[in-house]
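tool=predict chain=A
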Amino acid sequence: MSTALARRPGSVTFVAALTWIAAALDLIVGGVMLWLSYNLDSVESSLAEGEVRWYGIMTLIVGALTAAVAYGVANGSQGARVFVMMVMILRIAAAAYALVVVGGEAAYQGVAQVVLALVVLGLLSTRNASDFFRGYRG
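tool=predict ok
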């Protein structure tokens, strides 16, 4: 049995890259919203300062958590993999709910969300990905 480290499959790298992109976007948007909450007088908005600030803070928190998950997925954390898979299942459920309850207005977004979630689930479920997350060294 070889002691070589398991190589990260391309599918896992792709999912990790998408997760890093999502984290970066969340951190950027969160920062902009937080800044905007202190400068609402310079833009026309019906939102209250507290609402924008709360959204900015929550988006920064989600971005930081997403970055931690991206790091875990890229480094073979089984816990991060399971977390991403659970989130994708929740996204499918949320999209199905939106399609049934909201209907036509959410159709494209709902279908896109389901397709993206299924792709991520598939990429994290390949044999190579499973071996990588189990730390297979063979």
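DSSP finds five helices and no strands in the chain. Residues 72 and 79 are 8 Å apart (CA to CA).
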